[in-house]
Amino acid sequence: MSKESENTIYSDSSRLQHEARREPHTWGKRNWFQLGVFLATIGIGVQFFIYVHQASGDGAITVLRPPGVEGFLPIGALMGWKLFVQTGIWDPVHPAAMVLLGFAGFISLALRKSFCGWFCPVGTLSEWLWKLERSLFGKNYKLPVWLDFPLRSLKYLLLGFFVVIIFSMSSPDILRFLESSYYRISDVKMLHFFILMTPLTMVVLTVLVLSSLFIRNAWCRYLCPYGALMGLLALCGPTRIRRNSDTCIGCKSCSDACPYDLPVDKKNSIISPECNGCMECTQVCPVENTLALKTKGTGVNGWNAVKLSTVIIGIYIMMVYTAGITGHWQSSVTEHEFRARLQTIDSPEITHPKVRFK
User: Fold this and answer.
1) For residue 125, is pLDDT > 90?
2) DSSP readout, 27-63?
3) Burial category of 80 from C-beta neighbours within 10 Å (exposed 0-12, middle 13-18, buried 19 and up)
4) Cross-strand pairs, 292
5) Shortest CA distance to 74 belongs to which of 225, 207, 194, 177?
6) 8 A C-beta contact, residue 162 and residue 154
7) 3-state SS class at 270
8) How do residues 52-87 score in pLDDT, each as one tens digit?
9) Could you report the per-residue pLDDT of 185-215, keeping only the tens digit for each?
C-alpha cells in the first residue's frame, strides 16, 4: 500500500472519530413517540380522576372509566396471569391489567426491552430528568462500577420477592384476592397514592426524582421490578444490537451514548438485559452499516425508529382491540358497585388482604 493511501485511510478514520465525538441528538423520532404515549397516559389519568370525582358524588357520571389505568396494577396482573395459566380464568375485575402486561412482555420478548425504551411513561419521565440535568450542567454522574453493579441487582431482588409471593399462592388464594373488596377498588387506592401522598411517600418520590436528575435512568437502572421482568424476557428474544467489528473504528461513541453504560464498542452482540432497544448507540455511530438493532431470522438489515414505533403501536392497537371485542378489556365492576365501594374505601374492611407463605 502506498504512503498516500495510508495517509488517506488515516485521515478518513480521524475525521470519522471526530464526527463520532459530537454530542448525540437530544431529541429524535423515538422521543416523539415517547411523548405521545406519555401525553396519552396523562389523559387517561385525568379521565380516571374525573370519573372517580363524579362517582364520589350524587350527580351524573359524564365520562367513562378508562381501562388503561389498570396498567399501573402490575402485581394484580401477574396474579391474573398465573391464575389464567392454571385454571383458564381471566381476571374479570381488572382485565386490562393483564392485557397491558401481556403487551409489555410480548414486545420485550420480540423487540428487545422496547417497552421500557419506547412505551413506559415512567421510563420516559426518568429519561427526561437526566437529559434536563445534562442540558443544564453538561454532564451526568456515574457511580463507580463496584457500587453500580450490585445496585443494578436490586430490581431483580424486588422482582424475585413479588414472584415468590405470587407463586406461593394457590389458585383459590389468588381468586379470593382478585375478588376481594380491596382489589375491586385498588385502582382508586393507586390514584390516592399519588394525589393523597403521605410525608413518607413524598420523601421517597423526591429522592427518586433527584437521583434520576443526576444519574441516568436511576429508577429503571436500579429499582424497577417491571423493567427487570422485561429485561429477562428480552434475554430469550431474537433482537439484539449487533456490531460489525470489521468496519468499527473504535471511536466509543456508542458506549458513551448508551444510557445504561453498556460496552457496545467491545461486543459483537449486546445480550445484556439492561439494553432497552433505544438505539441511541446506532444513531451516533459515524460508520454506515456498522451498528444496528437486528432481529435474527428476519433478513432485515436493521430497525429504524419509524419501523419500530409503527410495529409497537400496531401490536398495541391489535391486542387492545382483540381484548375489547372478546370481553377481556372492560372491568366487570359496575358503576353502581363502584360508587358504593367509594363510600367505604377508608373503612377497615377495605385493606390489603394478608398473604400467607406456604
Assistant:
1) yes
2) S-HHHHHHHHHHHHHHHHHHHHHHHHHHHTSSS---S
3) buried
4) 242
5) 225
6) no
7) strand
8) 999 999 899 999 999 999 999 999 999 999 999 999
9) 999 999 999 899 999 999 999 999 999 999 9
Could you give the C-alpha distances from 225 to 80, 142, 213, 219, 244, in angstroms and in order? Answer: 17, 21, 20, 10, 33
Q: Which residue has the cell 428474544?
A: 237
Report, as an integer, the average pLDDT of 262-281. 94
Give the mean model confidence (pLDDT) for residues 331-354. Answer: 86
Q: Which CATH number does 239-296 carry?
A: 3.30.70.20
Phi-psi region of 261 (alpha: psi -120 to 50; beta: other; left: phi over 0): left
Q: How many whole angstroms from its chain centre is CA 86?
A: 27
As a whole number of angstroms, the distance between CA 145 and CA 155 comes to 17
Q: What angle do CA 39, 46, 181 make, to 5 degrees?
A: 125
What grid cell was written down for 119?
412505551
SS3 state of residue 240: strand
Yes or no: say if 213 and 129 are a contact pair by the CB < 8 Å rule.
Answer: yes
Is there a contact between 60 and 54 (Cβ–Cβ < 8 Å)? yes
For the chain, give every domain's residue range: 33-237+305-342, 239-296
State how far the Cα of 83 lies from the Cα of 89, in Å rounded to an integer. 6
Q: Which three cell numbers stand for residue 257?
A: 451514548
Q: What is the pLDDT of residues 299-310, one digit of tens each?
A: 777 899 999 999
